[in-house]
Each structure stands twice: as structure tokens, then as C-alpha cells.
Write a structure and sequence with these properties.
The complex is a heterodimer of chains A (107) and B (367). Chain A is an alpha+beta fold and 107 residues long. Chain A has two helices and nine strands, in the order E-E-E-E-H-E-E-E-E-E-H. Chain A has a single domain (14-106), classed as Ubiquitin-like (UB roll) (Roll), CATH 3.10.20.440. Chain A has helices at residues 35-41, 100-106, and strands at residues 5-6, 10-11, 17-22, 25-30, 48-49, 56-57, 70-73, 76-80, 91-93. In chain A, strands 4-3-9-7-8 form a five-stranded mixed β-sheet, covered by helices on one side. The model of chain A has no long low-confidence stretch (mean pLDDT 90). Chain B has helices at 13-24, 61-75, 135-144, 160-171, 190-198, 256-260, 301-318, 324-341, 344-364, and strands at 2-9, 29-32, 78-80, 83-89, 93-98, 102-113, 117-119, 132-134, 152-156, 175-181, 203-205, 207-213, 220-225, 238-240, 244-247, 251-253, 265-268, 273-276, 289-291. In chain B, helix 4 packs parallel to helix 5 and helix 7 (301-318) runs antiparallel to helix 8 (324-341). Chain B is built from nine helices and 19 strands. Chain B has 367 residues and is of the alpha/beta class.
Chain lengths: 107, 367
């Protein structure tokens, strides 16, 4: 959920709301924020499944080091969503469980 | 190949301070940072800093960030963002990837590594579930992106990071069901602990997390009391319903680039682990390579900025931009401020650990 009123930071900063697509479904996002922030704001903490055991994973470090938050963004796989900025109309697909990456791993 | 007098890696508090000092003295400075915004972790520090007035106590972290960026612009230091330093070759050549696409080599006379630190994890069954996050990651989410991961959070670790993030979760409109601390007493400053206690957050010393559970994400956790040997006491388990677990169990210096350059390292548990040895000028065992901030031992932003200034002055001195006696005065002033920052029950131990590094650094100095 989004923090709209904050005692130190004030009311929600401006910045245009755009739509991105998560596995085909529209998700509201703020342009320029990390993809992961937009998804977490929409209540989506699980960002991918692991390729072998299909375990759910989400943001862990938030600074681009742990790679737990990777997703396929506009066709490019393994994009770190915690450090990749939202642009309008982005197409985001979760990896694992039947994805190309999982198939490659099982081969 | 581009040639630059001083290349600083990392545009956080230490790197920016180093750049500002060196550029102010007349050196040509380029700061490289892999992120798309400068400031490192300063802009998520929405609390007022500690210390005396000369340490900018009472000023919020993000305001210090804006000041440093303005100073960098004034002094002519250049900041290149989206620039990942992936290697440092012999003779101080840096391999850089810009915007994830273009690869470049930059030749530096002096390099200041201010790469910071990364958060530690703690393993318990369920620790990999979505919703279990580093406390710093939670802080980034709530203060920078203004996104609250869950209504209810459990915080692991009662050091200053755990305590401050707990308070900031409350400010963001969340609830903190408890702060668990395996040690028998609270780790951070009493003033931070008192603030969240007054707000009704229980700080449970002598407790740890046994497991986190949930299907697609964290739905709850089992906390348990531990004995003096940190072993769980059977029968004291308690379930708490939470959607987020913030892990605040310390930081590890990001010393990879220093290791690539062949800098001598030493293990200093008090300062976060393996880190490059340095001398009183922040120079490592490799001539012309300096460190500043959390890479030289995880401390606070205030000490990171002082170390940055020190490294900036020292590197500029070697390039002839400030003469010996004048440089000595400037460096003494920084050391005096750092020593006062490293006082008190927490600071004294860090000061002693730092002295042991500098002592070691004298033996392996680059000169």
C-alpha cells in the first residue's frame, strides 16, 4: 500500500501515475519508481518462483545485490526490479513455474 | 582512454564528501555510481542525526544529501550515474559499464573506493519467503518510494537500524508487532528504544525467530525465548501475525573492488567483517587507492562523511593541490571530529577497532 500522508515527508509527492502490465494484468505505478515498489504497493510481494523448487521469492535487499527480485521486463529476463525504473506500458512477466527459464533449467 | 585525476567509486555520503573536498582544492574529480540517483542511503535517512553541532546533529539525512549534491555541483566534481565499476586493473585503470551497455576504461591517478556496505541476513526456516526483507530495504520502500510492504511488521534486531526503522514504520502508518533481540539487552541507543517503547512497540530482549510461515508470502512468524547460550527454550513459542519481517542484523563492508586491486584486508568483527586495511590518510596497502565510509568499516553516515573528507584531502595532497603543513592541519581537524564521533559506549569500541586498522595500515602502507 502507498503512504499518502507522512509526518516528515508530507503528502504524497506528485509524479505521474502510469499503467504497467504484470503477467498481462494492468497495475498502477508511479513513473520512475522501481518496478518492485509498484508491485509491492499493489500488494504483490511474490515476484517470481525459483526455477528448480518453484519456491516464491520477493524483494530482499532492495539495492540490486541479491537478485531475488528478478523478473522478465519487456522481454528481457533476469531484470532486477528493485533498481529498474518504471516506464509507461512496461510489460512484466514473473519467472519460474512453466517459464522459459524454468524449462531451460530442467532440460 | 579517458584520464581523470581522482575517480571516486560510490556517490553516497563518503564518496560525495571525498569528491567535494578534493574538487574544492582544485583536483579533477569524477564520481561513478551504479544507481540512477546519487546520495547512496542518505535520502532514506529521514531522521535527525546525532552528535554535536559541528557534526550536523539535528539535520535530517536527506537534507545533508541535498547539501552534498549542491556542494559537488559548486566545486565542479562530476557525478556519472548508471555507471557500474566492474573491475580495477593494474595502474589504476577502471573498467566501467555505462547504462548497462557501453563499456569504457578510465585511467585514474588516485582512486577513492566508497562502495558502502550490504545488509546481513539471518537464516531461519521461511527466511526466503517474500515479505522477509532487509531492514534497509524496508526503509528504502517506506521513506524513498513511500510504499508500505505490509500493515504489520516484525523487526529482528534491536541495534540502531532496527530501532530507527521500527519508528519509521510507525511514521509510515504501519504497525510493529515486536522487535526481537537474541542478546539479553537492547543493542541500540536508549533514546531510540524509548521512542518506540512509548509508542507501544514491545522490544523483546532474549527472543529470536524460530520460523516464518506463509504460502505465497509471509503470513506470520513463531518467536521463541532463548537461553544464555542462544538456544530456544521449549514451550516459550509464540505466534505473531505479520506480513513483513525486517531483518536488522548488521552490515558487511562491500570490499570486492578493494580485493580486486590486491588491497590487504583484515577481519574486524566490530566493524562488519573483512575490510581493507588503511592508514591515517585512508590509503590502502595499494599506493593511490583510498577507502572511505562503510567499506572501511560499517559505522554511521556522519563518520562516513568525515572519512570521505579525509580521503579527499589526502588524495589532493598527493597530487600537489594542498601543501604538507596546510594538509596536516586540515586532516587533523577531520580526525579531531571523527574522534569525538567515536566516543561513548558504542563509539569507543569502534574507535579502538579503527585504530587497530590504522596501526595495521602503517605496516603495509602504499608509500
Amino acid at each position: 500500500m502507498r503512504v499518502t500522508n507522512h509526518p516528515i515527508l508530507g503528502s504524497q509527492q506528485s509524479g505521474s501515475m502510469v499503467t504497467i502490465y504484470l503477467d498481462g494484468d494492468p497495475v498502477p505505478a508511479r513513473e520512475g519508481e522501481p518496478i518492485a515498489a509498484a508491485l509491492v504497493a499493489a500488494g504483490r510481494l511474490r515476484l517470481r518462483y525459483t526455477v528448480k523448487r518453484h519456491e516464491p521469492r520477493g524483494v530482499f535487499c532492495g539495492i540490486g545485490r541479491c537478485t531475488d527480485c528478478v523478473m522478465t521486463v519487456n522481454g528481457e529476463s533476469n531484470v532486477r526490479t528493485c533498481v529498474t525504473q518504471v516506464t509507461p506500458g512496461m510489460n512484466i512477466v514473473s519467472q519460474g513455474k512453466g517459464s522459459t527459464e524454468a524449462a531451460q533449467c530442467e532440460r | 582512454m579517458r584520464k581523470i585525476e581522482i575517480v571516486v567509486v560510490g556517490a553516497g555520503p563518503a564518496g560525495l564528501s571525498a569528491a567535494v573536498e578534493a574538487a574544492r582544492l582544485g583536483a579533477e574529480v569524477l564520481v561513478l555510481d551504479e544507481n540512477h540517483k546519487p546520495g547512496g542511503q542518505l535520502f532514506k535517512q529521514i531522521h535527525k542525526f546525532f552528535g554535536s553541532r559541528e557534526h550536523r546533529a539535528g539535520v535530517r539525512g536527506f537534507d545533508l544529501g541535498y547539501e552534498l549534491l549542491a556542494e559537488a555541483a559548486q566545486t565542479g566534481a562530476t557525478i556519472a550515474l548508471n555507471s557500474v565499476v566492474f573491475s580495477i586493473y593494474a595502474d589504476k585503470r577502471l573498467g566501467v559499464i555505462e547504462d548497462g551497455k557501453i563499456s569504457r576504461t578510465i585511467q585514474a591517478d588516485k582512486i577513492i573506493l566508497a562502495t558502502g556496505a550490504s545488509e546481513n541476513a539471518v537464516a531461519f526456516p521461511g527466511w526466503i519467503l517474500p515479505g522477509v526483507m532487509g531492514a534497509g530495504a524496508v526503509q528504502t520502500m517506506i521513506n524513498l518510494h513511500r510504499v508500505l510492504p505490509a500493515v504489520k511488521t516484525l523487526v529482528i534486531g534491536s541495534g540502531n537500524v532496527g530501532l530507527i526503522v521500527s519508528y519509521q514504520l510507525l511514521q509510515a502508518g504501519g504497525q510493529v508487532v515486536a522487535v526481537v533481540e537474541a542478546a539479553p539487552r537492547i543493542g541500540g541507543y536508549g533514546v531510540h528504544a524509548a521512542k518506540i517503547s512509548r509508542a507501544g512497540v514491545p522490544i523483546l530482549a532474549g527472543y529470536t525467530v524460530k520460523r516464518a510461515y506463509g504460502d505465497e508470502k509471509v503470513e506470520g512468524a513463531t518467536i521463541v525465548k532463548v537461553d544464555e547460550y542462544f538456544q530456544p527454550i521449549v514451550g516459550t513459542e509464540q505466534d505473531v501475525e505479520v506480513g513483513c519481517i525486517a531483518v536488522a542484523v548488521g552490515l558487511t563492508p562491500l570490499s570486492e573492488l578493494a580485493c580486486l586491486c590486491g588491497c590487504v584486508t583484515m577481519y574486524v568483527p566490530r566493524l562488519g567483517g573483512m575490510l581493507p586495511v588503511h592508514d591515517a590518510d585512508m590509503q590502502t596497502s595499494v599506493d593511490g587507492i583510498y577507502v572511505a565510509g562503510d567499506i572501511a568499516g560499517a559505522e554511521e553516515a556522519s563518520t562516513a562523511m568525515e572519512e570521505g573528507r579525509l580521503a579527499g584531502i589526502a588524495a589532493a595532497e598527493k597530487l600537489g593541490y594542498i601543501q604538507g603543513p596546510e594538509a596536516a592541519l586540515a586532516k587533523d581537524a577531520v580526525w579531531r571530529r571523527m574522534n569525538t564521533l567515536r566516543t561513548g559506549s558504542f563509539g569507543q569500541a569502534r574507535r579502538e577497532a579503527k585504530l587497530s586498522i590504522v596501526q595495521q595500515g602503517r605496516g603495509v602502507g602504499g608509500d
